[in-house]
Design goal:
outer membrane lipoprotein receptor (LolB), chain A, seven-stranded antiparallel beta sheet
């Protein structure tokens, strides 16, 4: 299945399949040790940080809801079926992860997915570079057309057979959907096909031991696995995500996966987390203004 691309790429990922390909399932046991942790090692709201010569600030959270501080929903977001309180919470999450304007303007992202591969993403030009050392493969994806196109080099040789190239480009597309969702899911809460429900409040979330709001995301008629559900535990003080849970279907009582969100840092105005517990690491993260010439077009 191929999917058209825009800056919000409104479709789902095969989260578990790809995540467990990159990491052994047993690694999630590391997350259990985080239950007694607090966010004392996280940047404090209101504190300025200097990174790559640029100064950023973690916003001081205000009483929720934030009222007029909203961000635009994608066409097809199920606003009618979503709770008003859930939408307000989604707006607060985006605001305190840097704000929609900062995300809309952000261009070049780079990150390492679980130590298995590195990705570079030109969000504005809709181009992606994926390097997979394990199988000595480089993927160059171009999302500017109706379906992904691009080039692939495997084991030192460029793939030129059209059928093989299509297979590898489809594979790269699935990788990018999955890996980018782990990085910027907090900015995709009002994507096409999404319904948001407010799940109340809890005294402690499953991972960070913090008072949290609960936000549930379900999906309709998008992606390869439209019955998935995500549950986010959102810190009541900072509006940062403390924990996310993945459910294979919206009817499942227990999540198939649960990880913390830790080590929040500013990146050119955005606030991103690179630590999902154990080997579920996304760092080093970059949010750069420019990229080297040929990054997205040359091997």
């Amino acid at each position: 299945m191929t999917t058209s691309f825009n800056t919000r790429f409104p479709f789902l990922l095969l989260l578990l399949a790809l995540a467990f390909t990159a990491c052994d399932q047993s690694n999630t046991s590391d997350a259990a040790t985080a239950a007694a942790e607090t966010t004392s090692n996280q940047p404090k709201p209101g504190v300025k940080f200097k990174k790559d010569g640029k100064t950023s600030i973690i916003l001081e959270a205000q009483p929720w809801p934030v009222g007029s501080d909203t961000y635009p929903a994608a066409e097809g977001f199920n606003a009618e079926g979503s709770d008003r309180k859930a939408i307000q919470l989604a707006d607060s999450i985006v605001k305190y992860h840097g704000g929609w304007d900062a995300y809309a303007a952000a261009r070049h992202f780079s990150w390492n997915f679980f130590g298995a591969r590195t990705l570079k993403w030109d969000k504005l030009e809709k181009r992606v570079r994926i390097e997979s050392p394990k199988d000595n493969t480089v993927y160059l994806l171009d999302y500017s057309g109706e379906e992904p196109t691009g080039r692939v080099r495997r084991r030192g040789e460029e793939v030129t057979d059209p059928d093989s190239l299509r297979i590898f480009l489809d594979q790269a597309n699935s990788i990018f959907i999955n890996d980018s969702y782990w990085l910027v899911q907090q900015y995709k809460l009002k994507d096409t096909g999404v319904t948001l429900k407010f799940g109340g409040e809890v005294r402690v979330d499953p991972q960070a031991n913090r008072p949290s709001y609960v936000l549930d995301m379900t999906f309709e008629d998008v992606g390869d696995t439209p019955r998935n559900k995500y549950r986010l535990y959102v810190d009541k003080k900072t509006f940062h995500i403390n924990t996310w849970q993945f459910f294979r279907t919206a009817d499942d009582e227990e999540p198939a996966m649960e990880t913390p969100w830790r080590n929040y840092l500013p990146y050119n105005g955005l606030v991103l987390s690179d630590d999902r517990g154990g080997r579920f690491q996304l760092g080093p993260i970059g949010a750069d203004v420019v990229a080297e010439r040929g990054t997205y077009t040359e091997f």
